[in-house]
Design brief:
The chain is built from 15 helices and 13 strands. It folds into 3 domains: 18-219, 2-Layer Sandwich (Beta-Lactamase); 220-289, Signal transduction histidine kinase, dimerisation/phosphotransfer (DHp) domain (Helix Hairpins), CATH 1.10.287; 298-443, Heat Shock Protein 90, CATH 3.30.565. The radius of gyration is 31 Å and the shape is elongated. Helix content is 46%, strand content 19%. The protein has helices at 18-26, 28-31, 36-48, 79-89, 96-107, 114-118, 134-139, 156-162, 195-256, 262-289, 302-310, 313-318, 339-356, 388-391, 409-419, and strands at 57-64, 67-74, 122-124, 143-145, 167-174, 177-185, 298-300, 323-328, 334-337, 362-371, 374-381, 423-428, 434-443.
Length: 446
């Protein structure tokens, strides 16, 4: 007998141990396409859920330069509002995603919410004289504050906003760097904060710090990649444009000379026209690849688009002298992609196959279901194949093995597949041809 279980339970199980509930809520961020703000909201949700750690309210500060700035406050403003929220969250069958959605709406209201009051708070975070809450971040220590009204280390502005006598400060750390702070309290129930509460809250603080640190690293990596790509593009543009521009300039100078024979004029003008067309093609391809964004993917029938590509004059002309075999399932599913981009992707793959295969070779296109949710479109050629070093660079912009190639076709295909949640697989050996598989998300036709 085999029993199957999901990684994530769909229901909010109120009878489970609160450590399990805490981890279950936080694990949502590993499976959902959440932004950093939403991931931090997941942490605050875990801290304030009734069956989790169970704090009434949680406020988030983030480090900006040498300042600690209020960003988000999750929790009710009164006992009446708390009763309503906890009644909603106690609805039978409610799932974690619904709870997170509810809390996202709660912190984004435009009225006089806790978050709007919190965003007015900014504290110096790198001074020895810093008061609480910045005091905890400066010293990288978890602080439990009791009898806050009589504690001289508590900032009075902060106390006026939070209006409780007991609260917990959790610095958000990563690699010994302070990235923010979470402050927790039980303003509604007045339940004392226990050592067990502090341990679980500390765990949430470590995870939140890791989220912020990882996101910051990812952004820096993207910036470095963009700078590297810009440098590479500048070199590529210089290399690609220099020869046509020099040719146009040189042959134009010749035309300006007196007594140029008509035959030489026609020759020069023909060369200039060809070089200008080459420049137009370079600019078109670069503009096509560097589009700011691709269209939103939708489900559609790929059959008509494929037929349009195969029947186009361009493909019909190029396929002369080749054995072009098309094998598609009789009843194709709907695939997820932008239809126009899908057609361009297929044309790019066919162009590569024609360029890599000598006349008399064979090119085979197949379309078939990989499984219930996956559709494969493959293009196989009998051309020269791809070496292992080249295979690792296929999708890098401006990398090409063609004499007059620009190296933008395959990177464009990858952008399209990434946008629609698809995958690319490449199988090839030198002298044995190449097989490109595009794997799309699919569904049955409506």
């Amino acid at each position: 007998m085999i029993e199957k279980y999901d990684f994530l339970g769909s229901d909010f199980e109120r009878d489970a141990p609160r450590e399990m509930v805490l981890l279950s809520i936080i694990s949502q961020s590993f499976f959902q396409p959440f932004s950093l703000e939403d991931n931090l909201l997941v942490i605050l949700t875990a801290l304030t859920s009734g069956s989790g750690v169970g704090f009434n309210r949680a406020m988030l500060f983030l480090k900006q330069g040498d300042r600690l700035k209020g960003e988000m406050w999750l929790g009710p403003r009164s006992a009446e509002e708390a009763g309503f929220i906890w009644e909603v969250l106690s609805t039978p069958g409610i799932g974690y995603i619904e709870i997170i959605e509810h809390n996202r709406a709660l912190v984004s209201k435009n009225e006089d919410t806790l978050s709007s009051r919190l965003k007015g708070l900014v504290f110096a975070a790198d001074e020895e004289t810093a008061l609480i809450p910045a005091y905890a971040a400066c010293r990288k220590e978890i602080l439990l504050v009791r009898e806050a009204a009589s504690e001289p280390l508590v900032d009075k502005r902060f106390l006026d906003v939070i209006q409780v006598d007991e609260f917990l400060c959790i610095p958000l750390l990563a690699r010994d760097e302070v990235l923010g702070e979470i402050v927790l309290d039980n303003a509604i129930t007045r339940t004392p904060i226990t050592p067990a509460d502090i341990k679980l809250a500390g765990l949430c603080g470590l995870i939140a710090g890791n989220y912020i640190y990882s996101t910051t690293l990812h952004r820096k990596l993207l910036d470095m990649e963009k700078m590297a790509a810009m440098g590479e593009m500048a070199m590529f543009v210089t290399h690609q444009l220099r020869n046509p521009i020099v040719a146009v300039g040189g042959f134009t100078d010749q035309l300006l000379k007196p007594d140029v024979p008509e035959e030489k004029k026609r020759r020069n003008l023909t060369i200039i026209r060809d070089e200008v067309r080459r420049l137009e093609d370079i600019i078109y391809q670069m503009g096509h690849f560097l589009k700011v964004s691709l269209k939103e993917p939708v489900y559609f029938d790929p059959g008509p688009v494929l037929a349009g590509v195969f029947d186009s004059p361009e493909v019909q002309t190029k396929s002369q002298g080749y054995a072009l075999n098309v094998k598609l399932e009789t009843c194709l599913p709907q695939i997820l992609c932008d239809p126009i981009s899908f057609g361009e992707v297929v044309r790019n793959l066919l162009d590569n196959a024609f360029d890599a295969t000598i006349a008399g070779g064979a090119i085979t296109i197949r379309g078939y279901r990989k499984n219930r949710s996956g559709f494969v479109l493959s293009v196989r050629d009998t051309g020269r194949g791809i070496s292992n070093p080249d295979k690792d660079q296929l999708f890098r912009p401006f990398f090409t093995t063609k004499e007059k190639g620009m190296g933008l076709g395959l990177p464009f295909i990858k952008r399209v597949m990434d946008t629609c949640g698809g995958k690319i697989e490449v199988l090839s050996r030198v002298g044995k041809g190449a097989l490109f598989k595009l794997i799309f998300v699919c569904r049955e036709k409506e």
